[in-house]
Fold GNAT family N-acetyltransferase.
Amino acid sequence: MSRPAPHIDVRSITEADLPDWSRALHTGFLRTPDVTETEVTDRASYIVPARTLGAFDSGRCVATFRSFEQEITAVGGATVPADAISNVAVTATHRRRGLLSRMMDHDLTAAKDRGDVVATLIAAEYPIYGRYGFGPATWAAQWNIDVPRAGLDPRWAGPENGGRIDIVDGADVRKLGPELHERVRRAQPGAVDRDERWWQVATGAVRLEQAPWTEPFFGVYRSSGGEVEGLVSYLADDHWGDGKQPLNTASVKWLIAATPEAERNLWRYLCSIDWITTVKSGWRAPDDLLPFFLPDPRAARIETLADWLWVRVLDVVRALEARTYDGQGTLVLEVVDGAGFAGGRFRLEAAADGASCTPTTAAADLTLDVAELGALWLGDESAVRLAALGRVREERAGAAKVADALLRTSRRPWCPDMF
Ligand SMILES: CC(=O)SCCNC(=O)CCNC(=O)[C@H](O)C(C)(C)COP(=O)(O)OP(=O)(O)OC[C@H]1O[C@@H](n2cnc3c(N)ncnc32)[C@H](O)[C@@H]1OP(=O)(O)O
């Protein structure tokens, strides 16, 4: 049972609170509560104190919450401002007293006032965020490729299309990565922007105390015209079988590609490395092309399939007008939002050359909670499926099917980033 704790002060932190706040974050995330000066200095360099919340009991920090500015790509390639939420941790001694609810309300109210279109997060556990209006908007899968079973020609000696792959170092990735990623993320619904720090952390230029650094290999794919179209970061282990056979695993930390050719060749490269018998894909889109690059797709076995980015719509009109629609049609949505940020009845008129969404008093076609709208917004979830589950109500027979024809996309959305 939830016990209210009105004596606990929930507020934005100051820089002086950071050591205590960091200790509370470690405690909630079950990391050793030691906090070094280096970590505090590093955190001070990127957090926004006004958007970094703490709950304080008799002066001691017992809960943490942080948000930051983000851009997320909608269906069709437009980006919208998002309130990205991270570092949510309530110390076990203070759980289930409403501290997360208070911090969330504080943050979403500010995000709404700022004009953010959605809020986003990656949920530690599925049941936490639905109550705050978040819905699972993208999913992610990890594959294990059994390389000897994939049916690949072992004589492969590099791209056969005139492109090339080179091993580069972290400094090269910091030069080449941001421009490539800008192209990739603007074409990928569900992708989010990366700042300079992302590339510094990904290449070891900034090392996090809580995540000991092992220098990975970096590979770059260039097209036959010399254009950088793909990058991969991977680690390899050192494992040999009893019969003196190599049984090494290449674990992909991240792989981005602007073209299917870049994607195909980077996976082909990883599967061609001598001694490597297993390739772990890292987190990919659930409909990634990867298995079908292999002559025998069954050699790629899904290890994990789970919800990834959760979206909370804060502004229905701007969220629905920001995206594109392949089909043409009209839909009146009754959006229920217990927190009062985004509820109302809206008429969506969608066509291939643009969409309009306006408040209306017309009869609703579908009634749904704002969390279900979050799951539908990027085109991943099906309104027909949600109706079958009783989570979307059809006010007009067939309306869920109309919603699917308008909202769903041919490729699934994907957020490559964890934040
Ligand atoms: C974006 C991110 O950072 S994800 C990381 C989230 N953090 C973690 O998982 C770290 C470990 N866990 C925790 O820190 C905490 O338990 C939290 C943050 C998940 C929840 O914080 P609390 O302060 O306990 O939540 P709060 O008391 O506000 O709960 C509100 C409601 O959500 C429910 N709830 C909270 N957490 C969970 C959960 N993990 N599973 C199911 N229900 C939950 C509560 O029971 C309560 O329900 P009620 O209103 O019906 O009584």
The longest strand covers residues 60-73. The chain is about 25% helix and 30% strand.
